Every structure is written in structure tokens, then in C-alpha cells.
Amino acid sequence: MSIQLKDALAPGVEVSKEAVSDENRINAVNSKKNSFNRVALKMLPVLVLGITAAMAAPKPIVDTRNSLHATTKVVATGRKLFSLPSPGTIYIDGNAASNGFEMQRLTEYTVSVNEVPGATSYVWSVGNNAIIDYGQGTNVIHVITGSYVGQSLSFSVQAVDGTGPGAGSEISGTLVGF
């Protein structure tokens, strides 16, 4: 919509050259906004179609396999499996750990896995009752446990290469102490 200053003024009032120039700039900006809105509305069906197509992607299939020392999750999306295997057994201070392990509260530990051939880094996750002090990105992390006796602990790790993360290993246990 174009605004005309001369239509808004009382009869007999003159419009300055500066006011006409400002009026032209305002009308030009409004014209560009309307042009942009027309383009945005034309693209809306494409955006909706893209979102609908993304929502129709296949859901992951999760297959959980238990080993003596770790739980390995193998996930397939219907297109390809992970390129890297699970890191396997998780070690706590050099000893193989299994589900149900116990750790002392407020204590420092080294948690590790064997190196996975082809891995360029490792992604670790720890539960609420421990923190990673250092080592994220490597196959060995240094952790400090929390203070609440009887609370659960968990560690999980995935090896990563140029195509993304591989299958993971995870264990869970409990904090003990006085």
C-alpha cells in the first residue's frame, strides 16, 4: 500500500521536497517487503514437503546384545550398520568391569576400553554420579565419583571415525562407601 502525504494534509498546505523524498523511500521499502513476502509464500509448499519427507524417514531398529562385560547396542537405520564395532569391555582401573560393579564415593578412577582399529576419537558419557575430569575423545578417561552412597553409576563409550560414531559399550553399577 502506498502512502501519499498530500492526501493526508489539510487543503492549502504545501509538501516540502524532503518530505516527498522520505515518502518515496518509505514506499520503496514497503514494496521490497511485499516482494519478499510473495517469494516466501511461494517457497512455503517446498518447505512443508521437505519437512514431511524428513518425518517419513525410517525409524532406527535397536538390537541389544549382552556380553559378559558390557552391553553392546547395534543400531541399523535400514540403510547401513555402524562402520566401527563396539569398543567391547570397559575397564575400571585396569580391571574388566561388568554390570553391577561398585565404585567408592568421592574417588578418582581411570576408565578405559581397548583401542578400536580405525577410530579417530571416542565419545564417553557418564551418569549423574560421576564427572569426566579429563580424557574425553580418547579411549581412556579419568573420572571422579559423586558422594551419594547407593546411587547408580553408568559409563558408555562409542568409537568414532570419519563416518560417525560406531556401536557402543555401556555398563552400570552403584556407589558404595561410608
Automatic annotation (TrEMBL):
<dbReference type="InterPro" id="IPR045829">
    <property type="entry name" value="PKD_6"/>
</dbReference>
<dbReference type="Pfam" id="PF19408">
    <property type="entry name" value="PKD_6"/>
</dbReference>
<feature type="domain" description="PKD-like">
    <location>
        <begin position="107"/>
        <end position="168"/>
    </location>
</feature>
<protein>
    <recommendedName>
        <fullName>PKD-like domain-containing protein</fullName>
    </recommendedName>
</protein>
